[in-house]
Amino acid sequence: MSATNTIFDVFVIGGGINGVGIANDAAGRGLNVALCEMNDLASATSSASSKLIHGGLRYLEYYEFGLVKKALAEREVLLKNAPHIISPLVFRLPHQAHLRPAWMIRAGLFLYDNLSKRLTLPKSKGIKFKSTDPLKVEITKGFEYADAWVDDSRLTVLNALSAKSNGAKLFTQTKVLEAKSVNGIWHLKVLDRVTGETSQMHSKTLVNAAGPWVENITDNINSAESHGIRLVKGSHIVVPKIHHDQHAYILQNEDQRIVFVLPFEDDFSLIGTTDVDYQDDPQQAEISQDEIDYLVSITNSYFKHQISQQDIVHTFAGVRPLLHDEAEDAKAVTRDYTIELSTNGHAPLLNIYGGKITTYRTLAESAVDKLSTLFPNLKPAWTKNTTLPGGDFNSRSMLSAKLAEEFPWLPIALRQRYVRSYGSLCYRFLDGCYTQEDLGEHYGSGLYQKELCYLVQHEWAKSLDDVIWRRTKLGLRLSKQEKEKINQYLASKLTEHSYAQKCCA
């Protein structure tokens, strides 16, 4: 690696949303930053969320007022800074008398509306359901409120792109094997999992943002502190869409848990999540039969359209590293974060515990603020008023119209996907194309060679899953044969150092 002779200011372990958020913030404040991720960006928890930017209405029941207020404020910031991958989403909350009482829900929604300033989203209201609505006819009333939808894995990738543009060096498929503090400098032994080569890297400070593996890292660092992490698994199922309106639904269950039913990729419904304590390897997390039965059952208890396990087209599960606050039930464990700076017998070490995707930016800003005593020339915080890459446009509809004018041959569905996945970044692979044939070989479901090359050259995509699940969601549509064709193409072309030159030759 070319970085082996550099002493970085900040070395981040972990390529989830918190890790890349910190790398981006630090690089933009003038620090020399490196980040290592042992797999792909967003390959664990950060691609397995419920895809929501929200305050967390249910957290009010556990008196998490500070967390909700902070998250609601961030909701407005992120809607403004990433309009391509984040959009408003209206939720309907059906009410049934045997569940949470209506007065409690009204009080919660009043707080939700007023804990933080709303700039773009409507306030909550009571509603009555019609016989034409997708819910069972005995459900006649409920509530409506607004939050936001996010493509979680692309949020991670866009932060990585921003970090790179600010000078950060990001290494995926690169595992930290050892970290030692020597004379106030971290000496890190890292393994390139593609080539099998090991090398040494050095940094003045170390940031442990390894998510579910955060304590694995601290256990391997001499004199590092531990903070008690509780691993909680959340699982989701995807089925063909069970209703035709654009609303999301939040369902109350008799065990006081809630389940979201969300519009997903035009033709599907995303249903989740669960909260189950987890003890095994986070990388191996998958949905259990009990969780499938639970999600199917609660969905069928509300909707006219009934689903079964046979309808499921995709599942995913993620493990959230939550602060161990002695709550008996996994659903009640706090989603807030803690940032700890330690110099106890070693060079500066910043450990990141907990957090949720909605507050990743404030977590990152707070983490870098912690380093200000170590770097007196640190520039001011900057991310609050800066759009993420591709977000420099006024509205999706205006960008779509602009693309339609410049590339009239582009199919509408493909143009819309480019807008909501890449924003203006799509020009990086559309420029120079004058016909659909100029996009190169078609691999199925609107994935062309130009986009594939872009993802590998600029967005760290190295494997089939990187492309069809984390950079896009085309895995929902591609056939087994089409997936194999993409996989073979990547395998035949991809080496860490030569693919970028060969890809579009």
From TrEMBL:
Q: What is this protein called?
A: Glycerol-3-phosphate dehydrogenase
Known Pfam families for this protein? DAO, DAO_C
Q: Which residues form the FAD dependent oxidoreductase domain?
A: 9-360
- Which cofactors, if any, are listed as required? FAD
Enumerate the Gene Ontology biological process terms: glycerol-3-phosphate catabolic process
Database matches in InterPro entries: DAO_C, DAO_C_sf, FAD-dep_OxRdtase, FAD/NAD-bd_sf, G3P_DH_FAD-dep
Annotated organism of origin: Thalassotalea algicola
Keyword Transport listed? The answer is no
Which reaction is this enzyme known to catalyze? a quinone + sn-glycerol 3-phosphate = dihydroxyacetone phosphate + a quinol
Q: Which of the seven top EC classes does this enzyme belong to? A: oxidoreductase
Source taxon at top rank: Bacteria
Question: Which Enzyme Commission number(s) are listed?
Answer: 1.1.5.3
- Residue ranges of domain Alpha-glycerophosphate oxidase C-terminal in the record: 383-484
Q: Which family does it belong to?
A: Belongs to the FAD-dependent glycerol-3-phosphate dehydrogenase family.
